[in-house]
Design brief:
This protein has about 200 residues and is α+β, with helices and mostly antiparallel strands. About 35% of the residues lie in helices and about 25% in strands. It has two domains: about 80 residues, no CATH class; about 100 residues, no CATH class.
């Protein structure tokens, strides 16, 4: 039995609230669009994709997707996965294509989309993003994996004490004071960078 061209999917909010009046949304997904959501959860692995399709349920972000369970053999799923990119460990870091940074400080994370961190404060010639990309480019972050959820290659590096100082000094360039305070107060142990292809 082959996979259908379209699948009726119920979307339910998974946001924890005391009382939720969120209604269930039903939508017909083309199978390619449903596969894209499944791959973002289970990766580009035909066996795992088959398990999720057969379960008829998954959580992506704040939403639970539900559909009638679909049965498909790995041999049927594999050709459909060829349109998704593979990790490329030899792909060099490209600061110009970097769109998102995650600063890891112990169990805390500071998430910085480029559009937020690249905003320049009044009368300032540089942004926090400029400093971060200069630090990253000088270090040549190592390739980690490809994120199907983010549609980006993932690079990581651990800043040296001097690089951490440079980032703390640049923190006042950020438009959000709370983010500045966190960067200045927390130990920056690792930086993850998402780079579009």
């Amino acid at each position: 039995m082959g996979l259908p061209e379209r699948v009726r999917v119920k979307l339910l909010s998974e946001v924890a609230e005391y009382v939720s009046a969120t209604r269930v949304v039903q939508r017909d997904f083309p199978i390619a669009e449903l596969l894209e959501a499944v791959v973002s959860v289970g990766g580009k692995n035909a066996e795992r994709v088959g398990q999720i399709l057969g379960a008829g349920s998954m959580v992506v972000g704040d939403y639970r997707y539900r559909w009638e369970p679909l049965r498909a053999a790995s041999a049927e799923i594999e050709p459909l996965l060829t349109r998704f990119p593979d990790p490329q460990p030899d792909r060099p870091f490209d600061a110009a294509r970097c769109v998102y940074a995650i600063l890891h400080a112990g169990v805390e994370t500071i998430r910085l989309p480029r559009e937020e961190a690249a905003r320049r404060r009044f009368l300032k010639k540089a942004s926090f993003w400029d400093t971060l990309m200069n630090v990253a480019a000088a270090r040549t972050p190592r390739y980690h994996t490809y994120s199907y959820r983010d549609r980006a290659d993932v690079y990581v590096f651990e800043p040296t004490a001097e690089e951490e100082r440079r980032l703390r000094d640049a923190a006042p360039l950020l438009p959000v004071q709370r983010t500045e305070e966190r960067i200045r107060a927390l130990p920056l142990e690792k930086i993850t960078l998402l780079v579009n292809r």
